[in-house]
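Standup notes
- DV: blocked on the single-chain target, sequence here:
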Amino acid sequence: MAKLLTYPDQTLLQISGFVRHFDDPKIDAVIEQMKETMQEHNLNALAAIQIGVPLRIILLKKEDQYMLFINPAIYGKEGTYFPSTESDESLPGARLTVKRYPVVKIMYQDREGKDHFYKAEGEEAVTLQRKIDMILGGYLFDKLDKKERKKFFKEHGTYGDTCPNVFIKDKILKALRLFLTLHGLAILLSPFVEIAKIVLRYNTALFVLEFAWILLYALYAKYETTKYKNCTSCQGANVLGTSAIYTGVATILYIISWLVR
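- DV (later): unblocked, structure below
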């Protein structure tokens, strides 16, 4: 029997890899360990990552049989998204309400690597959605809104790689917005206020500072995206676009500043 990992073990944050070599005898050993762990803890489902093995393997107990899902993926969903109050052995003592689909269609492979399709309904669908989340590095609390997630961390504690409530990149961007606003205000007031004219004399220095600020934002946002890779609220897809927009704003302010001096 393998050790059952629980929060806040950071191993559970890993995104499990695909099983590629179905002739590997180690897979049988992993499956056997999963069965023993399920029997020991009286579980109806288990993902391999829960015993520290980062492979996309899930076992589901149906009556006295074990159904094996290798490389499972949800390819279809049916019904209305509904609130599901759930608990999981990876989060002992916690019961969280998250949104689920009542019916899911799953594509997976068996022990020999053959493709299969399975339609799960009701509690079985909920369970498989939760376990598939786990092989993708997701916890139940990742589906909570910010308020509920904050409440969870307050009750159960947190650690460095879970999703924070406030990102440093957002603070950097907020400060940059304020600075650019003040720059624009200085342009508007320069015909009337002497101090504003003085500020615009350092136009080039202001532009260099703003550009360095944008670069700092981009680099730190990239770092946070990597560090908190499981957070849906910390994705790097918009970092480049945001940086480009603010660079454009800083450039426009720089040009206007020269025209009004």
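- Follow-up: The CA atoms of residues 185 and 240 lie 26 Å apart.
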